[in-house]
Amino acid sequence: MNMIQAINSAMDVCMERDDGVTVLGEDVGYFGGVFRATAGLQKKYGKNRVFDAPINECGIIGVSIGMAAYGLRPVPEIQFADYIYPGMDQLISEAARLRYRSAGDFTCPITVRSPFGGGIFGGQTHSQSPEGIFTHVSGLKTVIPSNPYDAKGLLIAAIEDPDPVLFFEPKRIYNGPFDGHYDRPVQPWSKHDSSEVPEGYYNVPLGKAAVVRAGEAVTVLCYGTMVHVALGVAQESGVDAEIIDLRTLVPLDIETIAASVEKTGRCVIVHEATRTSGFGAELSAQVQERCFHHLEAPIERVTGWDTPYPHSLEWAYFPGPVRLGQALKRVMKD
Amino acid sequence: MADEPGRNLRSLSLHVPEPKYRPGDTVSFDDMEFPAAGSVARPDIAADPATLRDYPFTLIRVLDPDGQAVGEWNPRLEPDRIRAILRAMMLTCAFDDRMFRAQRQGKTSFYMKCTGEEAIAVSQAMALDRDDMCFPSYRQQGLLIARDWPLIDMMCQIYSNAGDRLKGRQLPIMYSSKEAGFFSISGNLGTQYPQAVGWAMASAAKGDTRIAASWVGEGTTAEGDFHAACTFASVFRAPVVLNIVNNQWAISSFAGFAGGESTTFAARGLGYGIAALRVDGNDALAVYAATEWAAERARSNHGPTLIEHFTYRVEAHSTSDDPSAYRPADEGLHFPLGDPIERLKQHLIRIGEWDDASHEALQAEVTAQVRDAGKEAEKLGTLSGTAFNHGFETSFEDVFAEMPPHLREQMGQSLEERRVAGV
Ligand SMILES: Cc1ncc(C[n+]2csc(CCOP(=O)(O)OP(=O)(O)O)c2C)c(N)n1
Question: Which positions carry the signal peptide feature in this UniProt record (chain B) (predicted)?
Fold first, then answer.
């Protein structure tokens, strides 16, 4: 399966098991979503459980909260993460805090799915990585898969989770992994181990990172598309990097991260979002707090620039193998 | 610029609305004309919204100046039922008075009264079914009171004391009671509106029989959430009653700042194809009738109804507000729709089901009920002096169903911090 099919399968499995799981969003019903992630679901489960929504993100998230309060498990899709902002207040002030403010009287088990990230020539309004904004909010979980197997397992875990989860899907690798070189196409997932996706139910628990490549020289922290960039660079540069796919930003698996940095003594963080106040800042702070005495070089951040995503120059923005390769060289120098 | 040489164009000017009266002005509402009680026809609950286009521009009224209930909208309630409405309204008023005083005595930080608006929440609670779900704003304490929710529970919330089921986390008056069909109140205006629509959509999708209702002030209709809710309610014909409480003021901004100079608030429904009614909000029977109509309509799959309740906010916006700074102190006295409790009382007397002595007795009874509940609630603590009525660690609970490691660690840190400080 590719990642889109895996995500589709996750929703299918959940809808089969729990008739409260309800999918809504712009174009998700009859058409199956602009990325086809919900294809076939309306046909299978009917219009009461899979339906198109008006182009109104505040409404999509707001009604999902109400549906959750009724007792359903809504899985709203925001067509692109760049369009989550009109629904921000509903997410931040409402979904994230409903359990807390009502002391458990009302809860909000919604899973907001949204494709994010660049590398598809989407310009500044179809390329953003807003995960850092949400990791700052208490009461929201943030999940980002990097391959089809995890995408399905994590999405099932997210839908089953009793709390609101943001599920950001790296659209650059919907159809296959890629090494970060803009002049090479993505590889079909079929050539990748994690494309072996079971048909039925399984889950990948939230809050657990994966060591996707063992190494001794430096720890690379990444998630989503960047996992593939990092894997490619580790191979090309010959640096013996240990690569950790975070999978869940909140809750963060700091144990796995700290154990790795204590072993390697070096840490490079890579994400596509803008640098200032990005999630890399949080990772850097936590690694410094826990592993300071083990560090042999300053922590490096490899990120997008603090500019909007430039359309024709997106590869100058994208943290690809060149930027990551140079950072690895710098941390290995000391 | 318009005065550049060679240009001969008229300058634009910006209209910034002004209320009719400011402090010191002489108030008169003589220019307001209201249709007579009983003059508005009651359409079939299945009526196509296209045939209801005049309704947002009139005012449904049942009680005439003599206290008679007249016309097609008269809900023809049994006297016992009317007395129950009157009682809940008076209890709401007594509750407001006591809690307002409690704030002034420093027992809590904040309170909001609904004086003059009691008919709305109370009558609506009576017209809805007990298991219909309410998504209120902050001036609908009457919903809980009319549903016989324990006053003491509400007071404990206001005091953030040991009996507060919300563990002292919410601003006073931001109640939550799933059991009472009362959704947790948000401080962010209007967010409950699309949530109510979502609840109603879920109920419809599941073939349930319960409907939802929500409330916003007229000021809040300017928020995007209001329009999101109307769009979804209209598109999915959600079984929901959407209420706008037009009490003329949004803190210091008069209704003109939400578009009230250009049209009525009920008329917002027209563009969405939603049935919309405009009701005398100080007439408990008219409010009841309109709500009953809307609820029946929703229950019969004819979709949502928007109701504007035309009323006046008699008291300050909240205990933090001083209305004499922006409106004439006597403006409320001149408001032509009268006091809702007084009007219902007159009606009951008029039909021979009430008298001044019974009224006084009832007043004494509700005052005592509130006082007794107040004393009980205060035994469990008030906000002053005992701000930490709940274990310190409880502030880390309920962020998630299960406490993740980083919160457990922070909870440990906070407890350690207090241990070291010796508190
Ligand atoms: C999103 C948001 N903006 C501003 C406020 C501050 N605020 C609280 S009440 C209020 C006025 C609301 O007026 P209205 O909707 O007419 O209701 P009323 O108080 O008259 O019942 C304002 C501006 C808020 N709570 N939430």
Answer: none
Beta carbons of A94 and B186 less than 8 Å apart: yes
Q: Is A126 a catalytic residue?
A: yes
Kind plus residue range of the DSSP H or E element containing A143: strand A141-143
Q: Is the pLDDT of residue A147 over 80?
A: yes
**Does A141 contact B400 at a Cβ distance shorter than 8 Å?**
yes
- Nearest-atom index, ligand 1, CA of B216: 15
Distance (Å, whole) CA B396 – CA B406: 11
Residue position matching structure tokens 């390329």: A127
CA distances (Å), origin B181, targets B92, B124, B130, B282, B343: 18, 13, 7, 24, 29
Residue B388 has pLDDT above 80, yes or no: no
- Which whole-number Å values give the CA distances from B361 to B151, B227, B339, B364, in the listed order? 20, 46, 19, 5
DSSP B365-379: HHHHHHHHHHHHHHH
B/e letters for B88-126, b = 16+ CB within 10 Å, e = fewer, are bbbbbbbbbebbbebbeeebbbebbbbbbbbbbbbbbbb
Q: Which of B189, B215, B218, B313 most suits a substitution to test ligand 1, by most atoms within 8 Å of the C-beta?
A: B189
Contacts of B401 in chain A (CB under 8 A): 99, 107, 161-163
Distance CA B33, CA B336 (A): 9
Beta strands in B88-235 (DSSP E): 133-135, 212-217
pLDDT in tens, B192-227: 999 999 999 999 999 999 999 999 999 999 999 999
pLDDT for B223? 97
Looking at chain A, how many residues does it have?
334
CB-based contact A49 B205, cutoff 8 Å: yes
**% of residues, chain B, pLDDT over 70:** 98
Hey, what amino acid is at A325?
A: G
Closest C-alpha to A195, from A147, A227, A244? A147
Instruction: Indicate the SS3 state at residue B213.
Output: strand
- Establish if A104 touches chain B: CB-CB under 8 angstroms: yes
Say if residue B4's pLDDT is above 70.
no
pLDDT, mean over chain B = 96
d(CA B396, CA B414): 10
Six token digits for residue B312: 């006046």
- Residue range B344-363, pLDDT digits in tens: 999 999 999 999 999 999 99
Structure tokens belonging to residue A65: 């909260």
State whether residue A73 sits within 8 Å of chain B by CB.
Answer: no
Q: Which helix (H) or strand (E) holds B197?
A: helix B192-205
Question: What pLDDT digit, counting tens, does each position of A209-245 carry?
Answer: 999 999 999 999 999 999 999 999 999 999 999 999 9
Q: Return phi, psi of residue B350, to 5°.
A: -60, -40
- Protein residues whose CB sits closer than 6 Å to any atom of ligand 1: B 139, 187-189, 216-220, 245, 247, 249-251, 313, 317
Q: Cα–Cα distances in Å, from B39 out to A53, B29, B34, B275, B386?
A: 40, 21, 10, 19, 56
